[in-house]
Amino acid sequence: MIQLLAFLAASLLPLPQTAHVEEIRGSVVCNSVQWSQDEQKIKIEMKDVQVRITAPSGAVKVVEILALYDPQTKLFSWTFQHVDQASPGQLAKTFSSEAVLYRTSTELIAFHGGLYLQITASSNHAANLSEGLRQVVVGLDEGRIKVDTDLPNGTILLNLGKELSPSFVHLRNSPAVFPLPKLRGVTKSDNRWRVVLDGPNGDSAVLILNDKYEVISSEVLPRDPSR
Asked: 58 and 121 share a domain?
């Protein structure tokens, strides 16, 4: 009798509520891009999709997800941004033009320039691009994956104004925030990362990072007349 009462009591408890995730029709953009890495060409598959996430409370938000996949190592990575209106493929377009993706045997590492150097590393694997994206959507639906912040969990931010100087980051004699420093290239040798950025004033900078993405040294180089 006690067991029966416990079962009935448990059956009357409210079930845990999860978010509902649905793909926005017409938002999917698929392509592949080639990245130059250490004088080699690496082909990465990309899929950009917008999803509508409805919370148990009824609140709705739209998130654009960019999934990245390396068929050779089966490494999978993804990033996201919050959007107000449909503009299919915008995140993929921005990523392709502004980011640098570096592949090691165990990780896909994405580097972004700007006021901060953003570094996001992923050691996740998937059978293919679609399966990796499906895992993300299921995680969002079950509440195991959160997109409440502006950046993916684990993203490292290096303040370029602090690591270099405010005069490198900001356009001289201008109150405008833009243009921002752009990432020119990333190389790795002997567990050291070499990151090269171009500043809005025509100068450039080099950051040397260790394998934990901590700054070892930094240098601002004067404007190169040939660039």
From this structure: yes
Q: Is the pTM of this model over 0.90?
A: no
CA atoms of 136 and 53, how far apart (whole Å):
13
Please calculate the CA angle 170-175-176 and round it to the nearest 5 degrees.
Answer: 70
> 3-state DSSP call for residue 19?
coil
* 164 assigned to some structural domain: yes
* Closest CA relative to residue 128, chosen from 80, 48, 78, 70: 70
CA-based nearest residue to 133, from 184, 92, 185: 92
30 — pLDDT class (breaks 50, 70, 90): very high
CA neighbor of 124 nearest in space, from 193, 80, 70? 70
Residues spanned by the domain of 43: 18-142
Q: Are residues 81 and 34 in the same domain?
A: yes
32 and 137 both lie in a single domain: yes
Distance CA 178, CA 114 (A): 9
**Higher-confidence position of 80 and 12:** 80
pLDDT reading at 83 higher than 80: yes
pLDDT digits (tens, 9 = 90+) for 174-223: 988 899 999 999 999 999 999 999 999 999 999 999 999 999 999 999 87
Assess if residue 58 is contained within a domain.
yes
- Detail the DSSP E strand segments found in 38-127: 40-54, 60-70, 75-82, 99-103, 108-112, 116-122, 124-125
- Are residues 29 and 105 located together in one domain of the fold? yes
